[in-house]
Design goal:
Replication Terminator Protein, Chain A, domain 2, 2 domains, two-stranded antiparallel sheet, globular
């Protein structure tokens, strides 16, 4: 549980730093090089999609870069605070975390 408290604190510290969120479009090849391996399975997108919408958190994506088609805040400070409410073991060293934004 200490690890989860540490995660919760780190997330809330980042929220408190009020990093900007930008939405940009990049060629698929560039996104495949920039996004951390295993984070997103771009092979599930049809090969015909050559331009991807990308979310950059922090200056030039310093905090995170992720392809996404969802709705996003303009600044992470809009999230308020994150509170972890539940932890569930998913076996083989994996856990699922439920959280709420206050």
């Amino acid at each position: 549980m200490e690890d989860l408290k540490s995660v919760e604190k780190e997330v809330n510290d980042l929220i408190g730093e009020a990093h900007s969120v930008k939405v940009e479009e990049y060629p698929r090849e560039l996104v495949e090089k920039k996004v951390e391996k295993g984070k997103v399975d771009l092979s599930r997108l049809p090969a015909s999609i050559s331009t991807l919408r990308v979310i950059l958190i922090g200056d030039n994506g310093k905090i995170d870069i992720c392809p996404c088609a969802g709705t996003h805040v303009a600044n992470i400070s809009e999230l308020g605070r994150m509170n972890i409410v539940k932890r569930k073991s998913k076996g083989s060293g994996k856990i699922r975390i439920e959280y709420e934004l206050l």
